[in-house]
Amino acid sequence: MPPSRDEGSTQNDAASGTPSQRLIRLNLVAAVAFTIGGSLFALGAFFAQNGVGTLTTVNVTYLVGGFFFSLGGYASVVLAVNGSKAQSEGAPSAPMRWWGYQPRERGWLSAAVLFVGTLLFAVSLIAAFAQDLTPRQSNGWIWFPDIAGCICFLVSGHLALLDVGNGHIGVRLGDVDWWVVAVNQFGSVLFFLAGVAAFVRPATSTELDAALVNWGTFTGAVCFAIGGVIQTFAKPAPTKVVAAA
Q1: Backbone angles phi, psi at 38, to 5 degrees
Q2: Residue 19 and residue 88: Cα distance in Å, rounded?
Q3: Is 80 exceeded by the pLDDT of residue 239?
């Protein structure tokens, strides 16, 4: 979740040496976490589609990937808090903040919704280890938090697109931040389609479309992995923060 670049914001940082360095480290943590999380999700979907390993292997791969998604989501919130306008207007050497509530900051709101989405995914991924679930139980404990997490990702991405566009959604090909958000939002759409297809039909106890579940998850996860790589090239500055999804 890279913050946008402010050309004059690094002058004070040269003296203090801490604000921009702090944001750079947080941005790198988020970027690497999303890259690893996306890669593991893609690997889990590949395993599931091609029958590689056992169901436990698939679930463990997803679960570890989910941990990195949550780590990236939390790092994005911390990045938003420490890169917000309110924080940057304080002392140049303001202490690190590990949490904050800034609902009027679009970057923070996008990151917070994204983080909630990763936690909902975690509920679904843990519930997937349960055995002999009825279709109703499967939909309630696995499908519902998963689809709710997908919706959170879509909402977060919409807010992030507004943020990089200064309140408007448009194409900004020369902006690294826009590429991160756009690629991840496309991945969020694919996650949502996979989530819808994962609904278990009570009559047959099968998913609506298992192939769409796997390939939608695979391609969506690849998008997040690519977005994470692109994010490493972002130049965070303590002015405004844009969420990655």
Answers
A1: -65, -40
A2: 8
A3: no
| Helix axis angle, 19-50 to 55-83, nearest 10° | 160
145-185: pLDDT as tens digits? 999 999 999 999 999 999 988 888 888 888 899 999 999 99
User: Rg of the chain's alpha carbons, rounded to an integer?
Assistant: 19
C-beta atoms surrounding 139 within 10 Å: 18
Residue in 114, 71, 59 with CA at minimum distance from that of residue 241 = 114
* 3-state helix vs strand vs coil in the chain, percent to 5: 70, 5, 30
Report the amino acid identity of residue 76. Answer: S
What digits encode the pLDDT tens for the residues 101-111? 888 888 999 99
Q: Running DSSP on this structure, what letter comes out for residue 4?
A: E
Instruction: Provide the 3-class DSSP secondary structure of residue 167.
Output: coil
Tokens of 15: 């003296």
**Pairwise CA distance, residues 173 & 32, whole Å:** 23
- Sign for the pseudo-dihedral over CA of 186, 38, 154, 109: negative
pLDDT of residue 84: 67
- Is residue 85 within 8 Å of residue 104, measured between CB atoms? no
Amino acid, single-letter form, for residue 131: Q
Residue type, 56: T
pLDDT in tens, 7-54: 344 444 433 345 678 888 999 999 999 999 999 999 999 999 999 989
